[in-house]
Write a structure and sequence with these properties.
Elements (H helix, E strand, L loop, with lengths): L1 H20 L13 H6 L26 E6 L4 E2 L2 E2 L11 E6 L4 E4 L5 E4 L4 H7 L10 H7 L3
Antiparallel strand pairs: 1-4, 2-3, 4-5, 5-6
Length: about 150
């Protein structure tokens, strides 16, 4: 009883689809005025709006910033060794900097900075999250990250 109703509805849908496919694929072009009519009735030009965000809404590119920074609270293990600050011996609570020249720098809680040759930009990109803030100065960035 219900199957006939379903089959009938299916066949009606098939017929409607076939009718739609049978419609012409090329529609006639609408009537447009010739080029002489455009010159005579030229409207004042409107400014072309670019299809891109204004500069105030754009995020800075990698070349616009000096570098990126992130917190690394756990011990930093590089090549099976726990990295320590050469000056104070701290081994956790790092700020990791990825500079514009693709070098990686580490800063401990005491403010000692050292270049890390065992890490690269690919490591930084794998372990950092999305950029959530841009800071005008290094001190503002360190304050934001809790140092």
């Amino acid at each position: 009883m219900f199957r006939r109703t379903r089959d009938r509805a299916f066949r009606e849908a098939q017929r409607a689809g076939q009718a739609m496919l049978a419609t012409p694929t090329e529609w006639p072009l609408p009537e447009t005025p010739g080029p002489l009519a455009e010159v005579a009735t030229a409207a004042p030009e409107t400014a072309v709006v670019p299809d891109f965000l204004p500069p105030d809404f754009r995020a800075p590119s990698r070349q616009d910033v000096s570098g990126f920074m992130m917190r690394w609270d756990r011990p930093l293990v590089i090549d099976g060794e726990i990295r320590e600050c050469p000056e104070c011996g701290a081994y956790r609570n790092w700020i990791v900097f990825n500079m514009r020249d693709d070098s990686i720098w580490l800063r401990c809680r005491a403010g000692h900075e050292t270049k890390e040759t065992g890490l690269d930009t690919a490591w930084y990109n794998r372990n950092s999250g999305p950029v959530d803030h841009f800071h005008a100065t290094l001190d503002e960035g360190l304050r934001h990250l809790g140092h």
